From TrEMBL:
Residues 14-147 form the Malic enzyme N-terminal domain. Coiled coil: none annotated. InterPro entries: Aminoacid_DH-like_N_sf, Malate_Decarboxylase, Malic_N_dom, Malic_N_dom_sf, Malic_NAD-bd, Malic_NAD-bd_bact_type, ME_PTA, NAD(P)-bd_dom_sf. It comes from Natrinema limicola JCM 13563. Residues 159-399 form the Malic enzyme NAD-binding domain. One of its GO terms (biological process) is malate metabolic process. One of its GO terms (molecular function) is malic enzyme activity. Its cofactor is Mg(2+); Mn(2+). Keywords: Metal-binding, Multifunctional enzyme, Oxidoreductase, Transferase. SMART domains: malic, Malic_M. This is Malate dehydrogenase, phosphate acetyltransferase.
Length: 751
């Protein structure tokens, strides 16, 4: 591990962070705007009004991670220079999880006054200060003095990070164990910065201070020791009027143990001395106060345990806190991070742990089940939803506690946060909001599948659709209960109801295509794809999703046979929305038509453009080939050329379209406006129509895998009523997204 870490850090360029520009610097004019003489304008604006720095500089998204290296986790007092890799790493986490920029500052100060003065002098640079790895008790004084002097948030993560994350865990542990915060007897091993801050925070959550027993290396913190001057001004508040004793004495009948000290100091006998169903947070790193297996084996009742390690359940990891707390604080230009904001963060984390966990998170942690209970009381750091839950909660608390300089519309704020994590989230938010405005009924043909059931629950929670699960009702309801989902599913069971009318409908639709009345009855009873297709065709539901457990062609066949294509369409097509950092492209056809002629290409282009508009994207279509505007003339290049000509000459087409053209011509503005200035496209295309299925499928996958695009789809266009065919292996979020698309499709049909 050490050798791997050294190689990781020394790889060219050394370290883990760099500075990147956010504005163009390609021309002389760009440089003149970035520096002299253009930079004078924002300087004068800020001189006139200091708050303009948030508008014209990076201040509003810049945090200083500042340390003197006097108490580096696991390494001790290694000094400022040696602490730099840790501070750089903190910057990586800020950027990775909350898109916050960081300057790491290592100060060679042992003197508290000098440290405070140096940090205070840097206030104009930063929107917030994250103090890191500073020894106790100096860290308390440093934070207090800086909070008093500065008008930006100051946060010592070693104190408050552990407090907030373990506080979230405590809220859920108490709920699961049936205990009451006000009655909870809590024993602390450790009396340093993290322990004192955590104990204080637990009091803010509802634990009574007189019920907290704190121990240091010399034993229980008692009033006798406090009077003797044995304690510092910060941990003295937790001294108890009780006899002297050691940690073993303090743990007898305790409901909860909180370890912030050293590894291996708690025995199984000490665990057995605790109250029923104890809560054990053994958070010393890298070795906890007692090992996970040893604690669990110590007794037969329920032990809810958390550690600081990632290889056991319930990791108390500060990365669940500081990036998102600062994100919320920065975005309201908070003057501080106060107790209300910290409590809001803990409660948001606790609530998130009760929600269904995304498939991507489960996969990232080895496909182990993650469901609210003793082994899952706090979310995982790689759960992207933490940003959308914690930052808004912190921002709201800042506003309500008068710590914010600006107000926010929290719903719109969540959308801004989603955009920080990628263009695809921003685009899907458009469709999700449209879906919420008028939810529709969506048949889920594979209703007994666990992933489909979880997706159905989220559709209800997010208010985008009313799902109808098709399948064995008993099995569906058992799965809902096993998953702990709190929603009442709408279920249609083809095997138990009277669906003669459905069989009649299917027979009438397909009797001239080889299906007998008996076969129609069997298909309705045994094939949920046919059943769902008939539901849609009869108008009993508004749309349908299928395909998660079937090959794409076999899933597509029933809706094509029963529902068919729209009145203005002869062909269906599969479209992917590919989102890059600053660009969105719709790619067709990637799933249906193997060798389309000009008729198919023309129609696919039209329907893909209509789909783009549902995402509030104004389409610019390019029909692709290996030829540019007749540079090669053969049967293959003539098809997209002819389709493009027809579309250009059609007065009903209200979007620019051209072709045939090569892919780079379609997406590079300098080629469109320079080499081919006659092109109908004045800007790069955002609807790319491929000449055949092979090219379309290869193209979108290369863009996704090598180009770093996020892919949403396939979305089926050209159908008479909304049907979308999932990909095998799609995750819950993919299904929910396609359900939103189907709802918006159905809204268009009903209007």
């Amino acid at each position: 591990m050490d050798e791997d870490a050294l190689e990781y850090h020394r790889g060219d360029p050394p370290g883990k962070i760099e500075i990147a520009t956010t504005k163009p610097t390609n021309t002389q004019r760009d440089l003149s705007l970035a520096y002299s003489p253009g930079v004078a304008a924002p300087c004068l604006e800020i001189d006139d009004d200091e708050t303009a720095a948030y508008q014209y500089t990076t201040k509003g998204n810049l945090v200083g991670v500042i340390s003197n290296g006097s108490a580096v986790l696991g390494l001790g007092d290694i000094g400022a220079q040696a602490s730099k890799p840790v501070m750089e790493g903190k910057g990586v986490l800020f950027k990775r999880f909350a898109d916050i920029d960081v300057f790491d500052i290592e100060l060679a100060h042992d003197d508290t006054d000098a440290f405070v003065e140096s940090v205070a002098a840097m206030e104009p640079t930063f929107g917030g200060i994250n103090l890191e790895d500073i020894a106790a008790p100096e860290c308390f004084a440093i934070e207090e003095r800086l909070r008093e002097r500065l008008s930006i948030p100051v946060f010592h993560d070693d104190q408050h990070g552990t407090a907030i994350i373990s506080g979230a865990a405590l809220l859920n542990a108490v709920e699961i164990s049936g205990k009451d915060l006000a009655d909870l007897e809590v024993t602390f091993a450790g009396a340093g910065a993290a322990a004192v801050a955590t104990a204080r925070f637990y009091v803010s959550l509802g634990v009574k201070q007189e019920n907290i027993t704190m121990c240091d290396i010399d034993g229980i913190l008692t009033t006798e020791r406090a009077e003797a001057g044995d304690l510092n001004p910060y941990n003295r508040a937790f001294a108890q009027d009780r006899p002297d004793g050691d940690l073993a004495d303090a743990m007898v009948d305790a409901d909860a143990f909180v370890g912030l000290s050293a590894g291996g100091i708690v025995s199984q006998e000490m665990v057995r001395s605790m109250a029923d169903d104890p809560i054990i947070f053994a958070m010393a790193n890298p070795d906890p106060e007692i090992g996970y297996e040893a604690a669990k084996a110590a007794r037969d009742d329920t032990i809810i345990m958390a550690t600081g390690r990632s290889d056991y359940p319930n990791q108390v990891n500060n990365v669940l806190g500081f990036p998102f707390i600062f994100r919320g604080a920065l975005d309201v230009r908070a003057t501080e991070i106060n107790e209300a904001m910290k409590v809001a963060a803990a409660r948001a984390l606790a609530d998130l742990a009760k929600q269904d966990v995304p498939d991507a998170v489960v996969k990232a942690y080895g496909d182990e089940p993650l469901q609210f209970g003793p082994d899952y009381i706090i979310p995982k750091p790689l759960d992207a939803r933490v940003l959308f839950e914690v930052a808004p909660a912190v921002a709201r608390a800042a506003i309500e506690s008068d710590a914010a300089r600006v107000d926010l519309d929290i719903d719109r704020y969540v959308e801004r946060l989603e955009a920080r994590l990628g263009k695809s989230r921003e685009m899907m938010r458009v469709v999700l909001n449209k879906a919420k405005s008028d939810p529709k009924r969506i048949a889920l043909a594979e209703g007994t599948d666990e992933t489909i059931i979880r997706a159905a629950s989220q559709m209800v929670d997010r208010g985008i659709a009313t799902p109808v699960l098709i399948g064995d009702e008993r099995k569906i309801r058992e799965t809902v209960a096993d998953l702990g989902l709190e929603f009442e599913p709408s279920v249609v069971d083809p095997a138990s109801g009277d669906y003669e009318a459905y069989a009649d409908h299917l027979y009438e639709r397909r009797k001239r295509n080889g299906i007998t009345r008996h076969e129609a009855t069997s298909l309705i009873r045994d094939d949920t794809n046919y059943f769902g297709s008939v539901m849609v065709d009869r108008g009993d539901v508004d749309a349908m999703l299928t395909g998660l457990t079937n090959h794409y062609p076999s899933a597509l066949r029933p809706p094509l046979q029963v529902i068919g294509t729209a009145a203005d369409a002869d062909y269906a097509a599969g479209v992917y929305m590919l989102t890059f950092t600053n660009r969105v492209v719709f790619v067709a056809d990637a799933t249906v038509n193997q060798a389309p002629d000009e008729d198919v290409l023309e129609e696919v282009t039209r329907h893909t453009a209509e789909l783009a508009r549902r995402f509030d994207i104004e389409p610019r279509a390019a029909l692709l080939s290996y030829s540019d505007f007749g540079s090669v003339d053969n049967e293959g290049t003539r098809k997209p050329r002819e389709a493009a000509r027809r579309l250009r000459e059609d007065p009903s087409i209200e979007f620019p379209v051209d072709g045939e053209m090569q892919a780079d011509t379609a997406v590079l503005e300098e080629m469109l406006t320079g080499t081919y200035e006659f092109s109908e496209l004045e800007q790069p295309a955002n609807v790319l129509v491929f000449p055949n299925l092979e090219a379309g499928n290869i193209g979108y996958k290369l863009l996704q895998r090598l180009g770093g695009a996020d892919a949403t789809g396939p979305m089926l266009v050209g159908m008479d009523k909304p049907v979308h065919v999932l990909q095998r292996g799609d995750e819950v979020k993919d299904i929910v997204n396609l359900a939103a698309v189907a709802t918006v499709d159905a809204q268009s049909d009903s209007s």
